[in-house]
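Lecture 7 notes: from sequence to structure.

We start with a single chain of 407 residues. Read the sequence below before looking at the structure.
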Amino acid sequence: MKRDYAFVIEPLEHAELSASSAERWLSCPGSVALSRGLPNVSSSYAAEGTAAHHIAAYEQGFQDSTPWNAHRWLDKTALVEGHKILIDEGLLDAVQEFLDYIVANEEPGDVALVEQSFTPAMAKLHPKFGGSTDRVMWRERTRLLRVYDYKHGAGVPVDVDDNKQLKYYAAGALLSNPQWNAEDVELVIAQPRCDHEQGRIRTFPFKAIDLLDFIADLIEGAKRTEEFGADLAPSKKACKWCPAAAANKCPALEKHTQALALADFTSANVERYSKDQIAEFLRMAPLVESRISAVREFAYSRACAGEEFPGFKIVEKRATRKWKDEDAARATFEKLPGALTEPELRSPAQIEKLLGKKKFTAQAADLVEKKSSGFTLAPAEDPRPPAQVAQIADFSVVPPANAEKTE
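Now the structure, written as tokens:
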């Protein structure tokens, strides 16, 4: 069964020592061998970010005669790495803020490249290096390289100062464009949905010559990942997107998890722990929380691909009622006291509460539809019927656009 989507992005292969995972493999070199062969599971939040990247890159592809307008995508639906993404106003507002920043901070004569792959150049340093950049800009007049990175996440602010991922991008950009004799580099993180003391869009300038030391650190870090028994150093940052952590394959993380699970904080036993021990448990807690989240995402992704886990099944998320045609619904209920929360009509559930179920059913039968926002993994005893794999996986596929990341 084929479905219509604004665009479809399938999972892509990432370089094993990519920029996006540099924070992990530089600090925890043993994670590379542990993660080898394991799927790098995409969460629904990451998929939403990928959709935002796609739209931002698509808009940047227009010539100067066509203004960049992210909102042309409003209310469309995309399928990204198995996740159904409704493109809403909040997503597009964030993308437009990023696009507006670019327009305001570039000038005639600047050279800009969107989603340029730097894998061929970086692979000369190490065969497992590679990736692409959201946008790089070269300003010959001042010998400035600017590297942009869009972050859609709303929960955790990402620091731009000395950011390893963006410095990796900068190194890749200069190696891929040797005609750019840069003197200065400026890193830009745009995270419009997350406040930060330096602003939602923040920059970090440094001298291009400093990238020589960073490249040396990358090469040395890559060598450490190849050592037998390479160090495992669990941390909140390193474990969050680690495939080995998600697949329950990390012995160091297992040690932390067992220690926390065996701790007994009932009132009768809490006094047995020193303040230092409790502080250590607090440091462990984010690792365990990240692990639980990663395991859920991993199982969901594999179940969507057709694998079965005893006692669990994929089901549609509980459907919510929506107006089929809000103008028709408004004409029906606008005289009902309390039906409007200016300037919008209340939801079907709220109108039903005002009218009573019987009257609402009689008046709104043709105005309401139920829509699920996607799928979820639920216990086998959940009353919802299991979804068929074809419901999830049989989609028409759009050829990859230049907006899709390759790292």
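The chain has a mean pLDDT of 84. Keep this in mind for problem set 3.
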